[in-house]
Amino acid sequence: MDMAATLAERHPAREQAASRQRKPSLLLILGFVGLGVYLVWTALPILWLVLMSLKNPTQQFENPPLFIFPPTLDNYKAMFSAEYQEAAGIAGLDLPRLLRNSVVAGVVSTALAMALAIPAAHALARQRLRIHGWFIAIMLFTRMLPPLSLALPLFLISRELHVFDSLPLLIIVYAAVNLPFAMYMLIGFFEAVPLEIEEAGMLDGLSRFGCLVRLALPLVLPGLAATAILSIWVTWTDYQFALVLTTQAAVTMPVGISQLVSQYSQLWGVFGAAGIVYAVPVVAFCLIAQRYLVTGLTMGAVKG
């Protein structure tokens, strides 16, 4: 009797627990609502840019805005065709060359910054000096300076050295800007690698550089990928350094896109097309390397 009574008492409690699990909590509902608002907030500008790139000049200024219309690819053709460029009024703006400048400056500067940051971060991670913390703080302080506070002195120096408006200048500046951040990121990744692995390699006859190349680097590849992605993103979206340090030969895509809309011309269609074309490579690269980005950003989160 006692056992039967106990089972009868437990059964409603079990049903109530199952009912609570089936009903979504208020916190879960608010979470989905917040996620929906964030997705709309993020996706709406991208959608607007895509629609703007597919409209002709008449459709772009319709009020209310058109969401259903016959699309045109003339704005994309104006980026790569001399005939369409002349028709659109951007004959003097070579957008493919600007895109090539952005690719070269971004890729080469990121490779240079990573090549310098890897041995420096490995040395700082393995040699714990008294000034370790101060060195990292000063290093990050230079990264937090406003870009214009650095761009104006660099402008004067580049004019004196006759390297103004050149890709090597942009590459060196971007590499110097990304170097502190890359070192800070990589220090944590190298610290997550057990020191005993490198000590065993040195007992087998490897030098410190050999331990870095043959043992440490393969273990921190996700961290290297994450650091490279974030570094190239900074250079890819830079506007202020390129605006101050270039005028014609080394102008990058962000500066060129800004010239499409001014007080003299408002080429919103080509502006939207150029924005989409410029965003596609880096977005595709991030999607391909997404697994390494997530793994790399969480790699040094737990130690021990």
- Provide the number of structural domains: 2
Largest sheet: none
Helix content: over 70%
Strand element count: 0
Q: Span from first to last CA?
A: 54 Å
Q: Rounded to an integer, what's the Rg over CA atoms? A: 27 Å
Overall residue-averaged pLDDT value:
82
Q: Which structural class fits the helix and strand makeup?
A: mainly alpha
Helix-strand topology string: HHHHHHHHHHHHHHHH
In DSSP terms (H or I, runs of 4 or more residues), the helix count works out at: 16
CATH topology of the largest domain, which one?
MetI-like fold
Structural commentary:
The structure is a single chain. The protein is mainly alpha-helical and 304 residues long. The chain has two domains: 2-53; 95-297, MetI-like fold (Orthogonal Bundle). It is 75% helix and 0% strand. The protein contains 16 helices and no strands. Helix 6 packs parallel to helix 9, helix 6 crosses helix 12 and helix 12 crosses helix 16. The model has no long low-confidence stretch (mean pLDDT 82).
List the helices and strands and how they pair.
Blueprint: H1 2-22, H2 26-53, H3 57-60, H4 74-80, H5 82-88, H6 95-126, H7 132-143, H8 147-161, H9 167-191, H10 195-203, H11 208-219, H12 221-236, H13 240-245, H14 253-258, H15 268-288, H16 290-297
Helix pairs in contact: 2-15, 4-5, 4-15, 6-9, 6-12, 7-9, 9-12, 10-11, 12-16
